[in-house]
Amino acid sequence: MFTIFFFGALSILSCSFFEQERVTLWTDVPEFALYAAAFNASQTKYKVETHYFELAAKKLGSTVEQPDIVVGRWLKSASTRYLFKPLDWLLKDNSLDGSAFYPKLLELGVIDNEQYLLPVSFNIPALVFTRDTGALLTDHFTINLEEARKLGKAYNAMSKGSYTRIGFSPNWNDDFLFVSAALFNTNFREGDPLMWDAAALIRALEYDKIWITESNTSIQAVDDFTFKYFFEPPVKLILQGRIRFAYMNSAEIFTLDYDQQSNIDFRWLAEKEHIQLSEDTVYYGLYQRSTIDKGAEVFTEWFFQLETQRHLMENNKKQQLNTILFGIAGGFSAMRNVTEEVFPRFYPSLLGHMPPAGFLNPPNILPQNWIAVKERVILPYMHEYIHRASVDNIKEANVAVFSPLQEIRPLEDRIADWYRINK
């Protein structure tokens, strides 16, 4: 319904395209329909026509149709990275201010020493909790895994042999499992077909496994608690006092309803001054085969301005879209001045909670089929490791303790099989 809401209006906007130069924008970010409409209303020479695809990067190589602008995720994968025009001229002639962007995010758009892609938005992983828990934390900006583990364990309570409260368990949220692995420097990245630090992944999974078995007794005890209480959303369980922490990313936090936001606090999840940004960071490029140069340039210059992005966020607020849209393109703006100066005006709880810029680490380059590989292969492997390698499971089976790698089919084999079947 979210996508239909935006793109149902496009037919209304298209009636005046015949008289103006049309710029075609492909995206997997629905908010760009609203941004195009705002641009079209701001001038009369150009009209941006927006086309939504579930994965814009994949669409690029599967049709003879040609966009002028592409905005989406996974644009720097091997199959798409050279389909864009260099943008250095926009930065060098001061049409755009390169220093306005978060440096690490801007750097990720560089290919062979040329700027091909511009960062648009990003999200940050966090733990949310009640305000009284916030008073126990050592830092106003971040929380690390060990602090969450200790405070989670201290919150646990049992009655008649089963938990009535559990502070936190890593297997409650797939994204938390993956982010915890990233914070152990697993470094999933595009390779042939995929590369990662296998030893770091095992260290992360062992840490999560021990967290469960030492803090929460066993995986079975956690599963029983989850089955009994998780018919409610995690934020409600926090407010009810049933759990202490829940994992959410920044977009999820700031699209909660007002009452929930006003009763919770949060910290960005970090390790050693390292905050791992979500893999679905949004990038922007001009398509190499496009023949519409001026119109695409004008839209690009218009979009990457502080005042434009402030205006777009004001429009969301006026239209009461804040409960379904966060910030710019569903995340924090990749323009540092927008995130640090404009966002706190619309999200007051960011005051005193702004993410430390030097901590922000963008994701590695990932293949365009990353989401499928992650959901169908990597996350199931993580869950199986935690369940089948748990000390309590081994004891229940009454077998000798052995290496988890002997017990569980290696991730390398699973990924190789998936790519062989899904060529």
Which ranges are low-confidence, i.e. pLDDT below 50, for 5 or more consecutive residues?
Answer: 8-17, 391-405
| Strand arrangement in the largest pleated sheet | 2-1-3-16-6-17
| CATH architectural name of the largest domain | 3-Layer(aba) Sandwich
Strand content: 15-25%
Portion of residues in helices?
40-55%
Radius of gyration: 23 Å
Mean pLDDT: 89
Query: In one word, what is the shape?
Result: globular
Structure description:
α9 packs across α10, α10 packs across α18 and α18 runs antiparallel to α21. The chain has 21 helices and 18 strands. The strands form 6 sheets. Strands 2-1-3-16-6-17 form a 6-stranded mixed sheet. It has a 4-stranded mixed sheet with strand order 8-14-7-13. The protein has a two-stranded antiparallel ribbon with strand order 4-5. With about 425 residues, it is of the alpha/beta class. The protein folds into 2 domains: about 200 residues, 3-Layer(aba) Sandwich (D-Maltodextrin-Binding Protein, domain 2), CATH 3.40.190.10; about 210 residues, Periplasmic binding protein-like II (D-Maltodextrin-Binding Protein, domain 2, 3-Layer(aba) Sandwich). About 45% of the residues lie in helices and about 15% in strands. The longest helix has 19 residues.
